[in-house]
Amino acid sequence: MTRRYVSDEEDSDRWQRFPFRDGDVVVSTRSKSGTTWVQQICLLLLHGTPELPAPLGDLSPWVDWLTIPEDELFARLDAQPGRRVVKTHTPLDGVVIDRRATYVVVVRDPLDMAVSLYHQGDNLDRERIAELTGRAYAGPVARPALDEWLRGWTLRETDPMVSMDSLQGVVHHAADATDRRDDDQVLVLRYEDLVADLAGWMEWLAVKLQAEVDQGVWPALVDAASFGSMRADAAARAPDRRGVLKDPAAFFRRGRPGEGREVLSRSDVTAYEERVRRLVAAEWPAEPAEVLRLLGVPARDAP
Fold first, then answer.
1. Using the 8-state DSSP alphabet, how is residue 200 labeled?
2. Which of 89, 126, 138, 161 is most exposed, with minimal Cβ within 10 Å?
């Protein structure tokens, strides 16, 4: 039984009707956690060429996003030949697990994810989003400075079913994926590992996805997946085919790990890490070490 995640812009109930096909790839992440990057990597591996046949947002749509009518979304995917790559920000307990598909979950340092989410808020055309989802536009909202906002984000108590991009939501997403890691069709990646060794982890993904890649084009595929290439071709690579981004290039803002810890004080980081340990222990008490590793938080007994 899958859980249903609903917000003003998303509804995971669409997965109940999703028309799976042999070899489909579902990329499941929290917001600003490498979703577009891993979509690009998977598309490159399955197509076997750096020249993709269409913009990323057309080839690999966001299944749960209500700005695209369901019938239109499914028809576009049905028209694609062969294996498809789709994205979701829903944890896997809210997604139908179909034996024909492979699920790639990417986990990013929550502090870095939150900083990217903060900046992404400035780049969203919320009036356009309201128009596409049929809601009234509430007008601009004033926000505190980044350090104050991030500190509040680490402390806020909320329901991950309601606020998936909260700290509780990030921990739940990672813990749920970790609990499924022994299933061959669920692949779990760290964003920071991709940054450190893009070619190596692309090769790992190619093997896991059973993607046959011509070694002659391999260097070009790795280059096409690099942050620089993604940002340089932002118009085709940003996941925006509905005009919700003010600046597609700003979607690829930094990409390097560590910014969250640069914003907060040492005491704030210490308090944040202790809270993550408590959340992980409550979410997955049997074996928390792997969840903490994915989240980049040391165990209490670490030196």
1. H
2. 138
